[in-house]
Amino acid sequence: MIKRLTGLLVLIGIFNATAQQPGEDEMGAWYMYFGTNKVSERFSVHSEAQFRFYETTSNFNQMLLRTGLNYHIDPNAIATAGYAYIDTDNNFYEFEGEINSKEHRIFEQFILKNKVWEFLFEHRYRLEQRFLDFGETTDTQHRARYRIQMTLPLTNTFFLNFYDELFINLQDDLFGQNRLYTAVGVNITENSSVQVGYLRNQFANAVYDRLQLAVFYNPDLSGWFKGKKTDQ
Predict the structure, then answer these.
(1) What number is the average pLDDT over the span 23-50?
(2) Residue 18 phi/psi, 5° resolution?
(3) Given pLDDT bands bounded at 50, 70 and 90, which one contains residue 164?
(4) Is 16 a member of any domain?
(5) Are 146 and 124 spatial neighbours (Cβ–Cβ below 8 Å)?
(6) Handedness of CA 177, 94, 172, 80 (dihedral sign)
(7) How confident is the model at residue 8 (pLDDT cuts 50, 70, 90)?
(8) pLDDT at res. 21
(9) Fewer CB within 10 A of the terminal residue: the chain, N end or C end?
(10) Among residues 52, 105, 61, which one has the least CA distance to residue 213?
(11) Rounded distance between C-alpha atoms, residue 63 and residue 60, angstroms
(12) Domain containing 68: what range?
């Protein structure tokens, strides 16, 4: 009887160790900057920097730098083509044996905006061509993303922001990940704001909780290209 009980406890321990997903017990954080700078009547430049951590202020996970050229078809439709560089560090204590990677990424996207009552909706469609370097090996992958975002102004200063984004792999397993986000935002000036929120990042075999701090700064630079400073 004791042997059977011991064997059962061992099996339960093995099952729990297998079922536990790496990093799921940690509250990580993403610190982010986003900029959209108008340079002419139809064009603007997107700039972005993200620093992601396995824990709130320690155990660096990923750096993402992204830029793109936006073409404003009209106030509610924007087409973008751009490039991103991603440096990923998997040297977290629960990720022993994982390989670090560097990625060069090309992307194309289309954004549509609309308003329903007081709710501001944004639909973002994105295709990505990913060129991954694992040191000794390389890989090329393709991915599609769709994000629906809803913003609710509370006052002229405060607003709520929500989005859900689905990642679809165009090779191997179809489901890549899903990101569910909610945040409180503050308009600092006419062209800058801050958001503090929570992200639930779900993969096929793991779910991660992430705090997010995002700064948005969108000055109009078109006047500089005309030889004069634009009032901001």
Answers:
(1) 93
(2) -75, -40
(3) very high
(4) no
(5) yes
(6) positive
(7) very low
(8) 44
(9) N
(10) 52
(11) 8
(12) 28-225
Chain centre to alpha carbon of residue 229? 33
- Overall average pLDDT of the 168-188 stretch: 96
Query: pLDDT tens digit string along 70-128?
Result: 999 999 999 999 999 999 987 765 445 567 889 999 999 999 999 999 999 999 999 99
Rounded-to-integer distance, Cα 37 and Cα 47, Å: 8
Strands (E), 75-191: 77-88, 101-116, 119-133, 138-153, 158-169, 175-189
Does residue 13 belong to any structural domain of this protein?
Answer: no
Euclidean distance between CA atoms 99 and 117, whole angstroms: 48
Q: Which two tokens stand for residue 5?
A: 């009980």
CATH number reported for the structural domain that contains residue 201 in this entry:
2.40.128.130
Residue 17 lies in a domain: no
Distance of CA 192 to the CA centre of its chain: 19
Residue 38 has which token pair? Answer: 């108008």
What phi and psi, each to the nearest 5 degrees, are found at residue 15? -65, -45
* 3-state DSSP assignment of residue 12: helix
Helix (H) / strand (E) element for 181: namely strand 175-189
Question: Which burial class, exposed, middle or buried, applies to 48 when counting CB atoms under 10 A from its CB (0-12, 13-18, 19+)?
Answer: middle
Amino acid at 198: Y
Tokens of 29: 């954080």
Between the alpha carbon of residue 230 and those of residues 42, 148, 189, 218, 223, the distances in Å are 16, 32, 16, 13, 5
Q: Kindly tell me the burial class for residue 122, based on how many C-beta atoms sit within 10 Å of its own C-beta (0-12, 13-18, 19 or more).
A: middle
Domain count, the chain: 1
